[in-house]
Amino acid sequence: MNRNYFITYIDNGKTVISGSLENEAFSLDVTDTPERFTVVLNPKKEIELVDFRVEFNHEFKENDNFFAGGYQSWTKTREYKCTDIQKGHIKLANMSAKTKHMAMLTGDQWFVKYSEKPGEFHSHCYTYVRNGENVKLWGSLSENTGYTYFKVKMNENSFAFCKDVEKKVVTEPYRVFDIVYFEGTYDEVFDSYFGLIPMPETRNGLLTGYTSWYNYFQDIDEKIILRDLNGLNAAKKEVNIFQIDDGYEPFVGDWLDPCAKFPNGMKYVADKIHEKGYKAGIWIAPFSCQTVSRIAKEHPDWLIKDEKGKSTIGCIAWGGAYTLDFYNEEAREYIKHVFDVVLNEWGYDMVKLDFLYSECTIPRNGKCRGEIMYEAMQFLRECVGDKLLLGCGIPMSAAIGFCDACRISCDVDLTYTGKIYNHIHVANEMLSAQSAINNSIFRRHLNGRVFMNDPDVFFLRNYNLKFTWKQKKLLARINNLCGNVLFVSDNAGYYNKKQMELLKHYFTKTNEKILAAEYISKDDIKIDIDDNGTRKVLEFNLKTGNVVIDN
After folding, report:
1. What is the torsion angle, in degrees rounded to the nearest 10, for the CA atoms of residue 402, residue 408, residue 411 and residue 417?
2. pLDDT one-digit tens code per residue, 284-314
3. Which residues in 332-425 belong to E strands, given as ranges?
């Protein structure tokens, strides 16, 4: 196959663009077969890479669907047709440098350009082109050396393999691409691709229970947690985990400091959870620390700095948070100590680790973003040991092989359509049940193959929520179909008999299997389901949450 190479690098301060397989700075070892494409860059001198992509022609057929896998847990993921548009951040965010930075912070626009033209899409780590039941999949096996993404211009029959190599300093052989290709049915190609990658044994598990976030957010205390723990008593047979979310710490980053809201300490709460026979889970953003936290004030040298030496905001939550640089030895030891206390002294069985993408926003130390994120996940996996690791806000390729469970969607929010201000400052990571349902469907192939899919919570309560009853049931139905982490944030002690029976129902996995799923119009999704040999159809309007067919 005729492929065109575009390699941009810095050599002695000069930016060079090369299209050759060998020059005075490097040579490329290339293997190019129908089943595998590999590229190893052999430097002849030290160079700093800027961009690396390989373009070629690919004939797209009528009715082809391109799978655009989102960058991280929250990023929009779906199939697109050649007439569709993949949008970047909303243009209103460009009103200032600050709002633009906020809009870009959670996503991939640091290194991927959105053309916002019909038929022009990109996908991270792997992609497929589906036409009916035939699926052609391309998947990367070299994510430890940097993020691989795939770009297409369907209307121009153009395809490209791309690598985010910004700031990567090369002094020895560097594996740029290792891309495998499979063709077959949807299940066949994913079985083949993920079968090449070592996965946690826990990926086929099931977690059912509670997390505190979507009722109280940070406004939790010991009384609320123990009350909601007791509220699950009527569903005790169906529950196996109870997770405490953000709010138990004085400030994000100061995880081990005493908090007046939990006067008996977090070990006491874990013990109470264990008395019920459940696993105890707890939320941590291990790389984040609020700007007002003790850690940020006492250890500014632990924080990631920009090129001007200024501490950088890694996420906009909590009024802004810095990011601990896990390459800093003291910061690294602090994070290790936190996990040792939480898991071994307090006795928690699972940690939900959030806002992980913040660690790799700035490439540094001669490493590119994907390389940093991979090494960060290696470090976290070592810290967690054989306890359960639920990833969230994590670049998806870095979750593969490290996470026992992983969020595959954005936050569901308390309003089905999402709050207006979220539409302003984010786009592809927009908080809403609509976005979560979409992602759960189009990332269903990860469940049980890579990790336990966490589609975020569903709701059955009647207060502190802007959902219709139909929207609640649709969200619960999709979560049960596509995920193996099934959580609510309700105080089940307030449930009536009908709500409690539905909780038990949606906490119980069925033998239903999705055969196919696709958009049949702008807002309508159709899912074909096999239920022990019986063919079913679930069709609904994503915008309204109204189900058209469910037989």
Report:
1. 170
2. 999 999 999 999 999 999 999 998 999 999 9
3. 350-353, 388-391, 405-407
User: For position 96, what pLDDT does the model report?
Assistant: 83
- What residues contact residue 389 under an 8 Å CB cut-off, 6+ apart? 350, 351, 353, 380, 381, 402, 403, 404, 405
Q: Which residue has the tokens 């910004």?
A: 166
Predicted structure pTM score? 0.97
Longest dimension (CA), the chain: 75
Per-residue tokens: 61? 């057929």
Would you say 164 and 146 are in contact if contact means Cβ atoms under 8 Å apart?
yes
Q: Please report which helix (H) or strand (E) contains residue 379, including its range.
A: helix 369-384
SS3 state at 476 = helix
CA distances from 403 to 19, 297, 388, 448 (A): 38, 31, 8, 12
User: Three-class SS of residue 216?
Assistant: helix
* Domain locations along the chain: 3-194, 201-283+348-356+368-509, 510-551
In tens, the pLDDT along 235-251 reads 999 999 999 999 999 99
CA distance linking residue 242 with residue 230, whole number of Å: 11
Tokens of 402: 């490290």
Q: Note whether 391 and 401 are within 8 A (CB).
A: no
Q: Cα dihedral angle (242, 247, 250, 256), rounded to 10 degrees?
A: 20
Q: Return the axis-axis angle of helices 265-275 and 222-231, rounded to nearest 10°.
A: 10
**What's the topology of domain 201-283+348-356+368-509?**
TIM Barrel (3.20.20)
Cα–Cα distances (Å) from 155 to 32, 118, 161, 259, in that order, read 25, 8, 17, 58
pLDDT tens per residue, range 419-451: 765 555 556 898 999 999 999 999 999 999 999
